[in-house]
């Protein structure tokens, strides 16, 4: 009932539009310099124009789109190297933030908020499979999870660095996109990433600064796997090669 109720909301429809447009760009279905029109894009996605209209400026802030010189948006070209560097930098900065939280001592309110998000994620995966709509639910929860840790670190410099990183395509925690081979693969990868969330919260609670920093750095690797950056993307500026 929880997931059904969320799926009916306008915010969730916008989240689904965000995920699906990201994936269309990732697959090359939407090419660089291609102008996006709300009506045909909404028809292609099988939804109303409102969530599409709301999604486009968000995608522009993520660096996937840019405003057309007259009106509307066009798809930007992007560099694979920039995406990989941004994800690695995000892992470093979030790792530093988490270490500071652990060493300072995490508050009860913070633990309660994180555990509520863990339960929210657990509800997505408890059925042993995922639906396409679950991807948007997970992306929204993931953004709040990472945001709480950064906020609790209380560092303007870390927050500003991560804000800059968030403008690189696919680099922000809630900018989820998936090069889908099957829903089973999506379930395995997302559930593994969520299991990492459990490890991160446990390390924060125990004040394990070095461990939680390492966990946060490692946590970006499932993102690279989700994007399948080991294959050549038809519209990227450089071959999409994942170097471990």
CATH architecture of the largest domain: Up-down Bundle
Q: Which range does the strand content fall in?
A: under 5%
**Structural class of the helix and strand makeup?**
mainly alpha
Order of helices and strands: HHEHHEEHHHHHHH
Helix content: 55-70%
Global geometry: globular
The beta-strand count equals: 3
Distance from N terminus to C terminus (CA atoms, Å) equals: 41 Å
Count of alpha/pi helices? 11
Class of the largest domain, according to the CATH hierarchy?
Mainly Alpha
Task: Give structural notes.
Helices cover 66% and strands 3% of the residues. It is mostly helical and 244 residues long. It has 2 domains: 2-75, Winged helix-like DNA-binding domain superfamily/Winged helix DNA-binding domain (Arc Repressor Mutant, subunit A, Orthogonal Bundle); 80-227, Four Helix Bundle (Hemerythrin (Met), subunit A) (Up-down Bundle), CATH 1.20.120.530. Residues 1-10 and 230-244 have low confidence and may be disordered.
